[in-house]
Target: CoA-binding domain-containing protein
Amino acid sequence: MKADDFMKLDAIFAPRSIAVVGASSQEGKVGNAIFSNLLHGHFNGVLYPVNPSAKHIMCVKAYSSILDIPDLVDLAMIILPPQRALQTVQDALEKGVKGIVIVSAGFREVGPEGRALEDQIVALCHAAGVPVVGPNCLGVINPKHSMNASFSTRLPKAGNISFISQSGALCTAVLDFAADRDFGFSKFISIGNKADVDELDLLRYLHQDRDTEVIMIYLEELRRGGLEFIETVKQITTYSDHPTPILVIKSGRTSAGALAASSHTGAIAGSEAVYDSIFEQAGMIRVDSINDLFDFASCFTMKDSQGRRKVPAGNKVAIVTNAGGPGIVATDMTISSGLELATLNEETVETLKSHLPATANFHNPVDVIGDAGSDRYENALTAVIHDNNVDGAIVILTPQSMTNVLETAKSVVRIKQRTTKPILCVFMGILDVSAGVKYLQEHGVPVFKFPESAARAFGALSYYAKWLERQHLAQFPLKHDEAKAKEIIESCVARGQTYLGEIDGLDLLRCYGFPVLETKLATNAVEAADLAEAMGFPSVLKIVSPQIIHKSDAGGVMIKLKNREEVMAGFEEIIANAQKYDENADIKGCLVTTMAPKGRELILGANRYPIFGPLIMFGFGGIFVEVFKDVAFRLAPIKRNEARRMMHKIKAYHLLKEFRGIPASDTETLERLLVSLSDMVTNHPEIQELDINPLMVHGVGQGATVADCRIILKAPEQNAQISRL
Model:
């Protein structure tokens, strides 16, 4: 679909009339299930069954062709084999339908012939400006309109959460799971092959849907996952007047199918790193399980008395419990979910002491003791929720013989209605707590069976609140010598040189403002000593060979050489090591340079992916990068704000600050270089892979120095072929 056509989806989600082409009276047929669901679900529009072999379907007059229907048709549901589906699409367009859903399988997913048919259908519909959902999908559901245009037997209750799924089979399981949790939906969509309407179209549409407050997605792959997707979704999750949270579960997180690559970046970054980057840059929240998907969604629908979404102002949580063990579990999970246990102020502690028995714990987590009645819970929760150090609360109840579960639930609801801070409940058990659980659900209070689920859900709320309130730094006024860089790349490609070592690589980096050391090639030991003496000791030698990419592995690097004699001996030793490492290597000589000023060793990298484009990497570098893998990724292009968030993501970020007498690093320069790297790989599609390892970052105001680099190029036509895969 075109970006501005998404409102045409009204014809699919809120049609006034539906033609079910392939409707059947035979039970067990998909055409029977879909028509039956619409008819017996009391769809509030007009239904037209289409079947040339039937006079009526379930007592409703049937038509031989969609063209025979005397009235206007908004939506055509097609349940026919591929060849007949193509003809029906042509008839539907002639009829003037406004939307099409193709449930049938047998298209792209079965091979070239099926894909050709699918492409023909899409081309016809694009020309007519008619959106198509599917093929190979479950269908669409809109509970508010009593419209179950799918072959799922269950019409969920109306709610304010929409669900998009690439898997039709998963949809039926999710609907059953939702029914068990009394979960309602605004829209429910199975997109199948995504021949036309895809996730991005639906996200645009659902963001404008007044009945949708949260969007959940089950995703297998994206076909539009680059800059367009990130910028569009970022507008949805952040910048609009009503930001919409998007929760995504992506299959294949543990897949080992990373792209084969020779650089560190390529070895570390798999396709999941690309998806993680897309989700983070767009403000989507990735979850690990279907259970978490529902848990988190229930929290994002919480509203205050003014109808505004409840999100915490910070990450400090108070826990109120009547059992020590679950309180400890909640405390542990709170920390691991990126939250902090709030420190209660003195006034709060005094208030708690006035209401609770002496055996209670008056500090966070607050233990009201097992015999607590609803009044004790209400007094304790009121005290902590009024504390300025508390951003929200988790209430834990284990059913004891003296526990009034329902009255405790009512106490929580009363407090919830008076505060803007989120309150989550954990009522542990099933039967003994059922009355309280039902009451909480009916009054919009998220309730969980176990404390770890509540802690993870609160962590998601805190993450989203931080996303909404993030700061926006002024951008760097960067100037690059793009023309010179293009000249270097074109020259290398023209002579068939796809691997750029430091000689050409440093020249290329210099065009984008990277600080590099004077580096020259020596072809013999005497020349190496002369160059080192002219540059000044101590010196560094590095092997130069197109076949030896990771120099340290081949014994091809020597550092801190203090005089001519050490340089000459080092040259001979490196050449010998290289010949032993790869006897067929084409050895050009050794690079001679000076030692980089002291600093922390980092790595900057890039790797180009089909569809998505260049993925850039940042982390601590040197020889341990592949061991610790403490790196962060972002899809280019990025600017300063994303560069900073990227840097903060690595676990060892605090090591860039002042640490045990070591001065803080020049993080502003790192931000600038990450943006420059992004610009370079975006401007020059020939760059397939790139490593700057190590990049030595110095103290604040002292910049950074490129100590080593490697760049792999591909001709533009090769990259074009890759992008079409």
In short: Confidence is low (pLDDT under 50) at residues 255-268, 720-725. The radius of gyration is 31 Å. Residues 175 and 226 are 31 Å apart (CA to CA).
